[in-house]
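ping. complex inputs:
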Amino acid sequence: MKIVLAQLNYHIGNFEANSDKIIDAIHKAKSKQADLIVFSELAICGYPPKDLLERKNFIEKTLKAIDLVALHCVDIAAVLGGPSINPHSKGKNLYNSAFFMCDGKVQSIHNKTLLPTYDIFDEYRYFEPNTEFNLVEYKGKKIALTICEDLWEKQPVDNNFAKEELYTVSPMEKLSQLKPDFVVNIAASPFSHNQKNIRTEILQSVSKKYQLPLIYVNQIGANTELIFDGDSMAINSKGDVACRLNYFEEDFSLIDLNEIEEQKAEEKEVDYIEKIHDALVLGLKDYFGKMGFKQATLGLSGGIDSAVTVVLAERALGKENVRVLLMPSEFSSDHSVKDAIDLANNLGIQYEIVPIQDIFKSFESNLAPIFGDLPFNIAEENIQARVRGTLIMGLSNKFGHIVLNTSNKSESAVGYGTLYGDMNGGIAVLGDVYKTDVFKLAYFMNKDEEVIPLNSIIKPPSAELRPDQKDSDSLPDYDILDEILFMYIEKNMPVSEIIEQGFAKEVVDKIIRLVNMNEYKRFQTAPVLRVSSKAFGYGRKIPLVAKH
Amino acid sequence: MKIVLAQLNYHIGNFEANSDKIIDAIHKAKSKQADLIVFSELAICGYPPKDLLERKNFIEKTLKAIDLVALHCVDIAAVLGGPSINPHSKGKNLYNSAFFMCDGKVQSIHNKTLLPTYDIFDEYRYFEPNTEFNLVEYKGKKIALTICEDLWEKQPVDNNFAKEELYTVSPMEKLSQLKPDFVVNIAASPFSHNQKNIRTEILQSVSKKYQLPLIYVNQIGANTELIFDGDSMAINSKGDVACRLNYFEEDFSLIDLNEIEEQKAEEKEVDYIEKIHDALVLGLKDYFGKMGFKQATLGLSGGIDSAVTVVLAERALGKENVRVLLMPSEFSSDHSVKDAIDLANNLGIQYEIVPIQDIFKSFESNLAPIFGDLPFNIAEENIQARVRGTLIMGLSNKFGHIVLNTSNKSESAVGYGTLYGDMNGGIAVLGDVYKTDVFKLAYFMNKDEEVIPLNSIIKPPSAELRPDQKDSDSLPDYDILDEILFMYIEKNMPVSEIIEQGFAKEVVDKIIRLVNMNEYKRFQTAPVLRVSSKAFGYGRKIPLVAKH
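pong. complex structure:
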């Protein structure tokens, strides 16, 4: 049996574009004499559709699009992900389903049993879990259709409890009793750089345990904060990865079920920084492309965060679509301005300079009757950052550019940034990248030539909002900061256990206190392109009004 | 049997304060010869704890606090809500439980079966659903302990599907087979003005169906966006409400199970505007009190939204804790300034005036090289709003006041507000109140004397960001706008069905388009005090990058 793995990029709610793309792939697969083509989870409507699933007309459009696709399944079968209506009198209205289609219509519907409801997932909000298990019979083969989490045994939540959260049901256990010939798993599994091999290991373990070939198809592309890396694969019954599709791009691969038994893909190890880089470029590209935006703008400070962000923007959108503003304060060094100009010139992008001192003075003099002779403090620092935020938004409003937020995960974690100032923007490009990884990204970008001026990378980080300010005045070194943050945020470790790892109690206490007291800032920021297993935003729900 | 309904206000994660309060209530109940005292759902840790439930030390502190409370249950029994550890080898780590305690210890744990996972609820994210049903035997009575949603038959989600989402299990059905003498339901059920009688009706129908008395205890108080109204009650086996506790305040009521059979509470109908008023005052009070903040500030424009907000703030925090800034633009009428001053004087609060024209001109001249001779448009309007936002944040940063966001639900829906400008603030006070209800709130506030200058209420709403600007230049009248918004947001109705209600297609299309294209603005705003069945924020999850 010849099977096509169709790894495509879908746009949520864009039924026309999605079904056109799916139908094109079906015809291409037919022209290659494929017997079966497999698309990813909820492909027809895009993933994650969230509360659009509660809209009746969204579901009607979905079902119509599915019927349209089925019409094209003549002399070929397809497995397509989409929501289906729960026909039973009780339970949630919908199932998360795999539609098996051939002979021009939907032949059977197979529903997802294990509905991830943790981190960024909330599938139980919308879907009824499946309780019935059937195989598909097609061309003499029996196929076990499963959906993403159905092959997982436990929920990968880092909560440091004694017990792992094992699922109470095993769909594969049930399906294997019906003696399938191979397994299909359709997925919408987002990228996370620090879980890189788990996915492959789980799929291989299923293959080996049941001694069955496994076809895994994931989507690629970004939908708001979530970036899907693809990484679709065919695994033979020995558990070898016979074929693996490209990361971060659409791909289309024809495999022969008999032949993969003897195949083993050549695997090349890609460094996680390169993957983060590619993920962020795709994240930006899709944010702009799917929203119908063309041009980006940001404030270029001469520092490393805005430098890395602008390079990502240039790579995602093209130099003609990126325009920057340099907004030096009276505390900015000449070098900062020069570094920013050099970078803009290296990239060939348009830049303008608007010093903020005049406007800041105007704020100062107008607030003087209220502020009196109170000393310069965080209030004045933030006013400067907000002058910048207002200038860049002015550019955005006048010319229709989208502002990119340049905050990194480390500073976002400890609240080292000004709300309504430098935290402005439509999308937070580096919001899930710790500062130590921002440095690595900068070096990676410079690997062939010095795009980012070395000085922007090596000089001590500073917000330049008061004389001789340095990040290290109030924060520990970033390598220490990031380690502590990782244990608290990604690993959910209690403070006492973090201290046990060998960090000074007063440092850990201070950092954790900063993280907790700055939840309110993160609440009001742009969506963060997610590249880790625990990003700020949708997948991390901390009550604001709580005692920590 | 004498039972105390303890309707208390809990602070999430503040185990010391919560357990002190619970223990005090137990001793008070004992002094009144009560046999049993009932607290609300997850009382010990506060509701909703969200992802704090994934932290091991949060659970450890919870369990310790529960044991401490149990020690005080001598000569009295208590039902207390809290998370418990799932002892089985599979499933989520936690249950959402009712702890039955007497003789100084926890005697049994009863778990929640129906875990709401819709709108603002995401309990399935944390808890394993219960599958075992047992009664408590105490002083010769058999008690059915249930938790909130356990008594509901369907999920109240307005998704306009053909079928209601009925639950597949009925915990009361199971428990009733064990022949209980009465039912206890502990809840954390948030206030929503447009679902006012549903709660009572459901509880009465359970009482009547099983012919059992029912003790219902809800919490009061606000935790970030959610406001809990209390409304605890005792219902006799005929389905009559025998006793109802106060709305929006802590309350403590002793009932006798025999006596309630002949009792019927005198019910007074409270207008929904008064309830919204009381809810918002409580919401503000708890936001400040539980965060440890004292003072609020906001921009007073002379318009109705900031007027209603400042009155709510004065009532929640006291006049000495509210300070306002008047920030007239060159387009503000003299009358606006006078109305704002009159209001500040009526309330006896401190005000200062900072005209924004100078600062705005400074922005204009600094941006002139970039903007050239492009005409005055939304860019300049937004700069003015952002100058105001920066001034008010300057006050906040200098003096430690928390900024109140004054956007109402209508303008927030259609994006009629400036991100990083007038949308600034720590909490959105009116963000779930449609403009037509803001007017009603203003009249309600003026019922005894004219607190809000009548002119602020009756003049045509305007942002005063360009000459002679009126909201009605670009929006339909608010009564039409609000009706359309309600059908789209609260009722989830398709556009076609809204038009069928008799609205002009072009008006409906325009408004819905505005709602959809402004999801990004709402994504970045402060938490909204929720008073309706569908507020912007946590309970409404719309993907930003999607085609509508």
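DSSP finds 16 helices and 21 strands in chain A.
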